[in-house]
């Protein structure tokens, strides 16, 4: 299944078959997000997992797995490719709230305003 742009034949989204981890580049660090994970300040997390600048090459790619669902959570047992479970809040957050905190921290880390 593909979703294409209406004005041209550019593919915007493509559904891939499981396991999705086979589509990740070699050496990708995979982090799962859960309120039960290791608690990090979003800014400290960005400093820990991102390269110093957005243009820096050679750093290992990262993959962030967020459980944007109405109930339940993701776990390392269900997703064995996740290397560490982390949290950006002591409380459960919606997917939008968690992404907002992460992207704000990434912007701050890289000086994007």
What's the topology here?
Layout: E1 2-4, E2 11-14, E3 29-39, H1 42-49, E4 62-66, E5 84-87, H2 95-110
Parallel strand pairs: 3-4, 3-5
Antiparallel strand pairs: 1-2
Helix pairs in contact: 1-2
What does this structure look like?
This protein is α/β, with parallel strands linked by helices and 113 residues long. It has 2 helices and 5 strands. The strands form 2 sheets. The protein has a 3-stranded parallel beta sheet, with helices on one face. It has a two-stranded antiparallel sheet with strand order 1-2. The model has no long low-confidence stretch (mean pLDDT 87).
- Cα-atom Rg, whole angstroms? 16 Å
Element order: H for helix, E for strand: EEEHEEH
Can you count the beta strands?
5
* Secondary structure category: alpha/beta
Instruction: Give the amount of beta strand, in percent.
Output: 15-25%
Largest β sheet strand count, sense and barrel closure: 3 strands, parallel
Oligomer: single chain
Regions with pLDDT < 50 over 5+ consecutive residues? Answer: none
The average pLDDT score comes to 87
Q: How far is it from the N-terminal to the C-terminal residue, by CA?
A: 36 Å
3D shape = globular
Helix segment tally: 2
**Spatial order of strands in the largest sheet:** 4-3-5
| Proportion in helices | 10-25%
